[in-house]
Specification:
Elements lengths: L1 E5 L5 H19 L6 E5 L13 E5 L19 H9 L5 E8 L9 H10 L3 E6 L4 H21 L8
Parallel strand pairs: 1-2, 1-3, 3-4, 4-5
The structure holds flavin mononucleotide.
């Protein structure tokens, strides 16, 4: 089982998570050795111990404008989720999946990259808006790889620059 902890403000990430969970079910049905995904959405009333075990985090990008290089670094909307992650054990955070909108150019998916530095975890994938089947396949495959690696080594991979 793969644990996925995510936040979604306007529903795009939630929609992609549904696609990802369904994709994992399909793969698992054909090959029971392939893991299912247990997804938990962050809410203010969150009552879950998902961070007590190895998990992946998924976060869209909400920055306060700018170009992401000289300005526009300030994270908005997802700050409570970040604080929740900060309260957990970063050793359990196996990887981060980011999302955003490519119209933001250099700022595309930047919050995931910020979290990668903050929590010393690799960004294992990015997808755009509600995502598609190709992105679901790519991200599921990456999650399986990092989870299997963790199960062998017993230690997460750190961020590689
Ligand atoms: C105010 C605002 C700022 C945003 N800033 C960025 C950004 O800097 N980079 C990016 O890639 N996407 C940015 N986005 C796009 C969102 O990340 C994108 O719509 C995402 O799919 C939202 O996910 P959600 O519907 O799960 O909340 C921004 C969207 C809004 C409304």
């Amino acid at each position: 089982m793969i644990n996925l902890f995510y936040v979604s403000i306007s529903g795009n990430t939630r929609s992609f998570v549904k696609r990802l969970v369904a994709y994992a079910e399909k793969v698992h049905a054909a090959d029971a050795t392939q893991p299912l995904i247990h997804a938990v959405e962050y809410t203010e009333e969150l009552d879950s111990d998902i961070m007590a075990h190895p998990f992946f985090a998924m976060v869209p990008t909400y920055l306060d404008g700018g170009d992401g290089i000289n300005s526009g670094y300030k994270e908005v909307m997802t700050v409570d989720f970040r604080d929740e992650l900060a309260a957990g054990d970063p050793a359990n955070l196996l990887g981060i999946i980011g999302s955003g909108n490519r119209n933001f150019n250099a700022q595309f998916g930047l919050t995931a990259k910020h979290y990668a530095r903050r929590f010393n975890s690799p960004v294992i994938g990015l997808f755009e808006l509600r995502g598609n089947d190709e992105e679901a396949d790519r991200i599921y495959t990456a999650m399986c790889k990092y989870q299997a690696d963790f199960e062998v080594r017993g230690v997460k991979r750190a961020l590689v620059h």
